[in-house]
Amino acid sequence: MADEAQIPPYQDFLWPAVVALRTLGGSASIDELLEQVIVQQRYSEEQQAVLHGDGPRTEIGYRLAWARTYLKGMGLAENSQRGVWSLTEAGLNVEPEQIEPLRQKYIAASRSKNGARPRRKDSTPESEGFDESWEDQLLGRIMRLSPASFERLAQRLLREAGFTNTQVTGRSGDGGIDGLGVYRLSLVSFPIFFQCKRYVGSVGAGDVRDFRGAMAGRGDKGLVITTGTFTAEAKKEATRDGAPPLDLIDGSTLCTLMKEYGLGVIVTTRAVEDVSIDEEFFETGF
Questions:
Q1: Is the pTM of this model over 0.90?
Q2: Lateral strand order in the sheet of 246-249
Q3: Does position 171 have pLDDT exceeding 70, yes or no?
Q4: Of 65, 86, 122, 232, which is the most exposed, with the fewest CB atoms less than 10 Å away?
């Protein structure tokens, strides 16, 4: 198993992230950006499986998150409320030799703004911690479920998404198939087999092939749901030419769907006031 030492530090993700965004047309979702960086940098499945701490975030995903944050602070990238990252004009034109000077400039400006504080010589953003997101908290809670409970959660989620006759059928000797549901699209309906993988880490291409093999002769529509991630090779295998395509739901997508359907997530909307001075009021003499 690879370890964190085999994953480059966050600053080595800065230029690859810029190149990946350029390759993707100047903008990308977080998942698209991560997958493109993995492909371009040729990270192995073993490297993709390395977790940050106890997970669920992978070390590559964690360090790329820091790189995104730095690119934003360096004025090279920006993100929308929907989590889409895009290059600014400066990001579209930056050269690789400019990255490190811009990073040092951003670090100096941040320290000046936040006040000087003692730092270890080997201090890095990784060593200073990363705020746990609601997605991390939700995945942590799901990980405390039993395997059977996670299967029932997947069943409930699919029902909320419009599946009918959804059943949990997982049993030993069933080749990894955990359930079956029927999805209707307009006038056509078709069965979809699903598999639940409740663990941290990455689902590899071998797991995808095994699940497809278990479906052989029984159906050609499949769905793999995991609390972890899928390696780039697994995603490629899921859509391989000549083989029945499989749909993949990773931990991030699972959290988004649970939020969308109100399962285990409470969303509170807060009103924020923007207050500014009305100069015209004062100038007109009240």
A1: no
A2: 164-168, 179-185, 188-197, 222-226, 246-249
A3: no
A4: 122
User: Facing residues of 189 across strands?
Assistant: 184
Quickly count: other Cβ atoms within 10 Å of residue 47's Cβ.
21
| Residue spans per domain, the chain | 4-131, 138-260
Q: Does 128 have pLDDT greater than 50?
A: no
Write the class of the CATH domain 4-131.
Answer: mainly alpha
Identify the residue with better confidence: 207 or 186.
207
Which segments of the chain are extended strands (E)? 27-29, 77-79, 84-87, 164-168, 179-185, 188-197, 202-203, 222-226, 229-230, 246-249
pLDDT of residue 30: 87
What's the pLDDT tens digit per position in 8-56? 999 999 999 999 999 999 999 888 899 899 999 999 988 988 888 777 7
pLDDT for residue 218: 83
Query: How far, in Å, are 114, 121, 149, 226, 242 from residue 117 at the CA level?
Result: 9, 12, 47, 41, 58
Tell whether the model's pLDDT for residue 131 goes beyond 60: no
Between CA 45 and CA 48, with CA 47 as vertex, the angle to 5 degrees is 60
Rounded distance, CA 198 to CA 147, Å?
7
Provide the total of helices (H) and of strands (E) in the chain, helices listed first.
12, 10
Helix residue ranges, H only, 144-284: 147-160, 205-215, 232-238, 251-260, 279-283
Query: In terms of Cα–Cα distance, which of 142, 254, 282, 136 is closest to 194?
Result: 254
| 58 within 8 A of 48, measured Cβ to Cβ | yes
Topology classification of domain 138-260: Trna Endonuclease; Chain: A, domain 1 (3.40.1350)
Helix (H) or strand (E) holding 18: helix 14-23
pLDDT level of residue 115 (50, 70, 90 thresholds): low
